[in-house]
Design goal:
The structure is a homodimer of 95-residue chains. In chain A, 55% of the residues lie in helices and 19% in strands. By secondary structure, chain A is α+β, with helices and mostly antiparallel strands. Chain A binds a DNA duplex (30 and 30 nucleotides) through helix 2, helix 3 and strand 3.
Chain lengths: 95, 95
DNA sequence: GTAAATAGGTTTATAATATAAACCAAATTA
DNA sequence: TAATTTGGTTTATATTATAAACCTATTTAC
């Protein structure tokens, strides 16, 4: 009846991060911060979790002299996102 | 960009309960338990929360000699559910 | 008739989670 | 060179989800 929801994606901020990256393929930390309205601390923690799960890959580089964290969604992340959306529909379809 | 998600509805079990009641208009505790696969304790707690928020009304009655808990969604509950679904779409629409 | 099992839940304890506050280092500006 | 800003990370706290333990009444088995 109700399909289980991936707890990693069933989180407001993590879902927003993934949603951005599904469209963008690549985004910098400050951009994600701005778009989601999250605090840097919260964002850092949630990106770590998505990265640890293999849903994101995180590249730490430099932009001029300043550090720059770039995030991209992985194929597994995209699959997980699509599965999550599919599962969600079992809750939202009001017959 | 991303609309906030009602934390009361952004919960797997509570969302399942509400989803059932949007379709059914009325359901007994054991039926909800069976359909959601939740434990009785968890279900009891989550129904209380939805009820405390005014999203559900809970009628405690008897079926023969045995206690029977009936749940119905309220107009505010329905509104909240619809708003939640609308908000969710801001996360799911992959352009 | 009474012991055990079942129905229908509620209360309570625990573990996980989300979140922001505090913090840090380097670069820039005053 | 002091203060501020950028770009984050680490840590502490408060909330939350969840199941275990529990309770009462009824039914079934002996």
């Amino acid at each position: 009846m109700f399909e289980p929801l991936d707890p990693l994606l069933h989180s407001e901020l993590r879902l927003a991060i993934m949603s951005l990256l599904v469209s963008a393929e690549e985004a910098e930390f400050p951009y994600i911060k701005e778009q989601t309205g999250a605090t840097a601390g919260n964002l850092s923690v949630q990106i770590d979790k998505l990265s640890a799960a293999g849903y994101l890959e995180v590249e730490k580089t430099f932009k001029g002299k300043r550090p720059c964290t770039i995030c991209r969604i992985t194929p597994e992340g995209l699959k997980a996102f699509e599965d999550y959306v599919k599962a969600l529909k079992s809750y939202l379809q009001v017959k």
